Amino acid sequence: xxxxxxxxxxxxxxxxxxxxxxxxxxxxxxxxxxxxxxxxxxxxxxxxxxxxxxxxxxxxxxxxxxxxxxxxxxxxxxxxxxxxxxxxxxxxxxxxxxxxxxxxxxxxxxxxxxxxxxxxxxxxxxxxxxxxxxxxxxxxxxxxxxxxxxxxxxxxxxxxxxxxxxxxxxxxxxxxxxxxxxxxxxxxxxxxxxxxxxxxxxxxxxxxxxxxxxxxxxxxxxxxxxxxxxxxxxxxxxxxxxxxxxxxxxxxxxxxxxxxxxxxxxxxxxxxxxxxxxxxxxxxxxxxxxxxxxxxxxxxxxxxxxxxxxxxxxxxxxxxxxxxxxxxxxxxxxxxxxxxxxxxxxxxxxxxxxxxxxxxxxxxxxxxxxxxxxxxxxxxxxxxxxxxxxxxxxxxxxxxxxxxxxxxxxxxxxxxxxxxxxxxxxxxxxxxxxxxxxxxxxxxxxxxxxxxxxxxxxxxxxxxxxxxxxxx
Length: 472
Ligand code: ARG
Description:
There is one protein chain. By secondary structure, this protein is mainly alpha-helical. It folds into 3 domains: 26-120, Fumarase/aspartase (N-terminal domain) (Fumarase C, Chain B, domain 1); 125-219 and 234-372, Fumarase/aspartase (Central domain) (Fumarase C, Chain A, domain 2); 376-470, Ribonucleotide Reductase Protein R1, domain 1, CATH 1.10.40. It contains 21 helices and 6 strands. The protein is elongated, with a radius of gyration of 32 Å. Bound molecules: arginine. Arginine (ARG) binds at residues 38, 42, 98, 124-125, 128, 332, 334, 336-337.
């Protein structure tokens, strides 16, 4: 960019030429500079930018586009730049727009012409696409590790709570007794699928755009396979236009992140409910809660509430990125600079949230007697009575009706099914015998469901151990 004013010429052709150069005849305003710059947020990709540049330089030297000396100078310069960045001494300039130009400018300052040759056969368009992929691949690997830890913590607590019984709900009404271990393992399943989704997304993130240059490739004899190998990419992007323009890999990540947060949010909702004094199923460690400035008795579950709230932002980032992409013609457009802040925000939120939850789960204090008391209300074993009648020969629909009548009776009498005498039960169906009381207990109910996917303590122990083994 040049800020000099060229005097207007009388010559028609000169005027034409000037019409073009006039775009550069005045300085960009401070506001426009700030508006168009990305360095304030893309500088966090600096390490990956340098990693990509070093691989590019190695390849350029290998194919003879730059000399071995140039390559050595570039490596030396980048080493110093890395040190300056890590020491917080690197001067990031808004005038230099983004992370790429800031680093390149400093490299030229340090090593001269070799620094100017680095950008041969490359554009910021394929450079930025490479940086994002390297950065995101690293974030995915961190998230995968955290999701494994989440599953282990849930499974460890499930092992401890394999025998603890609480009501299982449908429509937020007591439905059937379940074990708390089983309930926790439901979330372990969700986080397992989240990890599968991220691992699958990683395959498409892990492809090399570099070599696409601005959009059309380059006339230099580059070796893209070599660069891919140096950067541990599994594959090379096969179309230069696509390589610089699509951000579907980031959208996939944002979708996977939104699902992780959605699962976290559902879990949070339960933690908040369970911790409410009205329910009193659990207590969270003090370090995840805060007090009230006015009500001294309060201990609020701030962390799960905030996680539930942050889910909105992460969901929003997905929609923002989809919307960013939908109107763009091929190939690169500056719109794409807007891909980063939402993506960074989603990854930061996932990382912080999972890290906190791994710790918080381990510190859940379970109030087993409150859970049990709640399971004893609401005729949680009514289905077991119906199943019992079916085993005695009744068709299920008839058994369902018979039990409905018994429940109605108990509701009027203000008692539980298990409180009825054998004679009273036999009044509803003559096939009922003394072994019914085994069936009507909470323990009998859960123990009977020992098949794969069932809530029985025996099954919970098997599944929890399997999850621990798989993720340790
Ligand atoms: N900062 C830009 C981005 O994030 C880098 C690519 C700029 N390319 C260009 N032709 N202006 O997308």
